[in-house]
Design brief:
five-stranded mixed beta sheet; globular; 22 helices; mainly alpha
Amino acid sequence: MNTAMKMQSIPLILLVVAVTALPFLNKAYTIDDPFVLAVTKQILETPLDPFAGTIDWFGYESAMWEATTNPPLLSYYLAPFAAKFQFSEIALHAAMMLFLLLLAWGMTVLSHRFTQGSNWPLLFLMFSPAVMVSGNVMRDVPAAGLAVAGVALFVMGTDRDNWLYLLLGSVLAGLAGLTKYSSVIVFPVLLLYPFLHRKYRLMGWIVPGLLVFFAWCLHNEAFYGQMHVVYLTVHRRTVEGIPWQDKACGALVILGSMVYITPALLWSFGIRKRWVALAGALPVGVAALWGVERYFDWNADVQYGTWAVLGAILLYGVLLDGFRRGIRYVKDFRDARAADALFLFAWLCAPVLFSIFFVPFQAVRHQILTLIPLLLLAFQSINMALRLGGMVLEAFVVIVFFIQAAVSYAVAVVDYQFADSYRQMAAYVKEKYVSPDHETWYAGHWGWKYYADQAGLRQRHRDQALPKPGDIFAWPLRVHYGDVFGDIGDPFKVLEHGTIEKKEFTTPIPIRTMNFHGASFYAVIGNNIPYRFFQDIDLETLKVFRVKDFNPDTVRLKPASP
């Protein structure tokens, strides 16, 4: 990427990040945001011991060290902003824009390297729901931004034999691993590029990044007596019962619904007279639909099947084209284009397979890193078709992009409103039900936990104090609340069966992201898809109960913990 290209790209990168991020700066904290913020708060109290203290994230209090599943680099980054601006949503989301800039810059560099200067991979990535909706204060976009920028620098360093780029790329990859453990898959990607280009001596430059990661492991040994990543993979009980087939179906649905380029890719095959590849798309789509329907006992609906088919055909198309060009490397190690194709092919396979076989459940955020090689491979094929005179195809790509961007904005707005429902309900409960005459309790996590704590509500923990008769209990219908009632079994042994109040939060936009009636952006499990069209279901419903007069000796299933 030469200097002229760099200068031309900077305004576009800044514009893209501003347009996709600024409208959502005041988004309420949501899903795993409060966990990141809890670690941030702990860092401000004990800077060298980020996992000190306890947190209730599963319905009961547990050590932060045991409850968290990722390292704390993002919380360290956010700590000074949180201290300065009192955990302001606008301030922290503005701080997170750095990682969007890294993501956009890295994608731009890689696009200029692998797609002859095309800006389409950048635009389709940044205006995808995967990036726009995930712009919270969670670890996924930061990890992806650091990883992609690291790969871009490492590729530049390898091409130019520049040790500084190699060092910076390696360190950024290490920082990505300290942001989200799953990002360590970027290290094999870094190794592969100089290997395929027969610059074996440069492979050693991954060592600085590994040392960054191992420094954290040494910290763990000193403070906690064992490495956190070892504790998670060996000792901690993980989520069970979600088979790999479920996660494979979810991966196809996510890829199909996050980027809308599948029809353009197929069109490019036709222009390039890739008739065998084009004909193969039909059986692949039929097989995907049959597999999905059979797995879900023929209960997968039209939207689920559509996204799964589009995702399967997209994955088939880019992998086939990448493999076809990459296989030439076996015959000629000096074929740089074959090495590039094989590199992107392997990079694409890594996060897809990792998300299917090594993560507890599928989610859109787990596939952000997948979109980079996917889009690069797709636009290698599309650009070849455009050079053959595919002007109508180019117009079609423009139309498809604007459709995807419009859907992304709509989905992002609805998810903004979903997150805001918890901020609103906490303020509502505080105003109407918090009183010195009684305790006001709540159950649940995600953004609701953060705002309920801010409003002065008391969280109910399993095995600890029971509410007293006359107290108020606020309970959102769909929020995750874990095993909070595990010590009493039926919460209505304590709560009145009739609610004091039921308050719905809704939106006129007919899209839903987190209602668990088939829509679940942050956990694509079972028949859920990331976003669902044409649903007239509330975003969230708050139920408020009054605690009835009960005998505490008879409601507990087991003695309370001391």
